[in-house]
Amino acid sequence: MGGRPTPDMNDIFGDIIGTIFGGGKARGARRGADIDYVMELDLEEAVGGVEKRIVIPSLAECDTCNGSGSEDGKVETCASCQGHGQVRFQRGIFAMQQAWPECGGRGQVVRNACRKCHGQGRVEDEQVVSVKMEPAGVDSGDRIRLNGEGEAGAPGTPPGDLYVEVRVREHDIFGRDGDDLHCEVPIRISQAALGDTVNVPTLGGEAEIRMPAESQTGKTFRLRGNGVRSVRSRAPRDLYCRVVVERPVNLSAEQRELLESTP
């Protein structure tokens, strides 16, 4: 349903206080826009940490006018707002202020606009950013903020920030639950019945576990310290290996009879 927009009381009182004390919230030109970027990582990269260079489309500072928007680099103080970038007006009993439209709230105007950026001080470009994933152990949904790596702002304003969101690809062997890892370990029926030493995968290589006799599918072994190093505590978590007893196929009649006779 339509209706009047709800006023922001913080904005209203900010204007009132600004009028009383001669300051208040700046309503001039804002800084550059923030950029959101999704970075996909392999599990090994997320767990061990990695540094990657990414290319993002963005608004960059014009290299012809160095972001001033002026062909000759000269800017003038806005005569209408005397360089304040704001205009005050009365709304009922309250004195309000907003960005002056002629200068866009910057307090400066460009008479000789740059031919490349047309006086905007910014141009469409691609930006190469080096992103270091640290501390190691990030997971899907984690976000990293890089200050000042967003889009360039209007002349005289700071750039925005770059937010990189992590997405970890599914792994062929390991599943992740928080900072714990899980995997399945297939064994032959003879190993399950008689017991054996079995090699199991870890992110750092192979490890050995002793499989006791009469092991069943679902039996789980815990390898301490072979999980993900926690971002918060920096302590490594654990790897849980779940046994899966493989069913034999293409059995001979003698083998089938032997298995059926085994209690």
Automatic annotation (TrEMBL):
GO cellular component: cytoplasm
Occurrences of domain CR-type (ranges): 49-126
Cofactor(s) annotated in UniProt: Zn(2+)
Subcellular localization(s) per the UniProt record: Cytoplasm
InterPro entries from the UniProt entry: DnaJ_C (IPR002939), HSP40/DnaJ_pept-bd (IPR008971), HSP_DnaJ_Cys-rich_dom (IPR001305), HSP_DnaJ_Cys-rich_dom_sf (IPR036410)
Pfam families reported for this sequence: DnaJ_C (PF01556), DnaJ_CXXCXGXG (PF00684)
Keywords, in A-Z order: Chaperone, Cytoplasm, DNA replication, Metal-binding, Repeat, Stress response, Zinc, Zinc-finger
A GO molecular-function annotation: zinc ion binding
Zinc fingers (CR-type), renumbered ranges: 49-126
Coarse class of the protein's main subcellular location: cytoplasm
Example GO biological process: protein refolding
Region (Disordered): 139-160
Protein family: Belongs to the DnaJ family.
The protein's assembly and partners: Homodimer.
NCBIfam families with a match to the protein in the record: PRK10767.1
Name listed for the protein in its UniProt record: Chaperone protein DnaJ
Annotated organism of origin: Pseudoxanthomonas japonensis
